């Protein structure tokens, strides 16, 4: 008789695992992957133009959601203000400029962070 209880317990456990896996799969399929927002395609550019002026492009990838302390609007404003400071401006040669590209990653799944960084390049 105890064999029957062990068999039933194993069957229950298999159903629990199956339901758990289905729930995990649904959660993964509903998560965002950052690529559905807008295309980030750009032509390949040279770092320096014919006149010798060079531009460094850097990406700032933060959530736009203001419930985060470090959100895109706050950090972007501080970064823009810092880049206008004479000390920072003098740290770079006059032929070099820095361009910050800002991306909202509020709904991105953590697994796609590397893909978003590559897309920003």
UniProtKB/TrEMBL annotation:
Residues 1-31 form the signal peptide. The keyword Signal applies. Keywords: Signal. This is Uncharacterized protein LOC111363500.
């Amino acid at each position: 008789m105890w064999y029957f209880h062990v068999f039933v317990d194993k069957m229950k456990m298999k159903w629990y695992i199956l339901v758990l896996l289905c729930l995990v799969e649904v959660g993964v399929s509903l998560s965002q992957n950052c690529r559905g927002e807008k295309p980030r395609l750009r032509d390949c550019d040279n770092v320096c133009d014919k006149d010798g002026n060079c531009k460094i492009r850097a990406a700032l990838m933060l959530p736009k959601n203001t419930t985060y302390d470090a959100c895109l609007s706050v950090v972007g404003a501080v970064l823009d203000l810092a880049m206008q400071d004479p000390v920072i401006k003098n740290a770079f040669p006059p032929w070099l400029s820095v361009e910050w590209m800002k991306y909202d990653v509020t709904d991105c799944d953590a697994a796609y962070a590397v893909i978003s960084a590559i897309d920003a390049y």
